[in-house]
Design a protein that fits this description.
It is built from 14 helices and 9 strands. The chain is of the alpha/beta class. The N terminus is likely disordered.
Length: about 325
Amino acid sequence: MEIDSRSKPTAEAAKSTSFKTALVLPTLNAAPDLVSWLAALRTQTLVPDRLLLVDSSSNDDTVQIAQQAGFETTVIPREEFSHGGTRQMCVNQLEGSDIVVFLTQDAMLASPNAIEKLLSRFNDPKVAAAYGRQLPRREADPIEAHARLFNYSDETRVKSLDDIPRLGIKTAFISNSFAAYRRKALMEAGGFPSHTIQNEDTYVASKLILAGWKVAYVAEAAVYHSHPFTIGDEFRRYFDIGVFHARDRWIRESFGQAEGEGMRFVKSELRYLKKSKPSVIPSAILRTAMKLLGYKLGNREQVLPLWLKRAMSKNRRYWDTERKEVQAR
């Protein structure tokens, strides 16, 4: 597939910055949306100095399109992708970069200054990480839209140790769909974990905050990013979240339980749906029940057989790795 050479992000498109910056984009069969994604990147007032795409052996033209657009590319076997390990592999390749930006292939930059606004927060030397606002897709249904509006407000804030009594576990909330890290601080914190089922971003943010760094939420830096999850999808996602919290209990012990934040979400969702679309409230209640069930089961995964955990999980390759480790013993 050929792309217009004008869609290549160039150095001329970037404003000067005192930081050496890089952008990492993990992909899998991204070709259908990649040209539009690159067009949005091309319009940015600040384009990172290095552009790295790490592809999980796509079956389409993803790699060729990215190379034509000026990206460095790394291809890995699909079964070797992991949320934390693959991102850390990219960070290791980007030695010499001060700030590393992460985006996902389904997160579309919403304004020409989104990356510039995100990176501006690193002018504060105590900020180790920053993440942008996620807006619902234009075609999002009310349940999908509310999830983004609840978790991503229109108010920028910088979070630190001092915020734990007030924000609890939300203090460590961050999303690698659109986030940036001070590479030095990330490496000092041990980098992204090589084997975690998901939430590698929350894991690192927790480490950074407990080490005295700050994490910035930048509402002015936005992407369009949301998903129309089925009820089964919700169950599997929250099972994985439960596994994450069970295996990294130090996060809840340091920041507080997740359940209180969940109750605030439910109350907000019901108020939102009552005004926007009351007919979907029964579906929302069922989804909440399935999320809670999934989370509770995931949190008790140590008593479940491996085959059942794999069946209930969204990230089944994670359990394949576990099975190989068991067989090797």
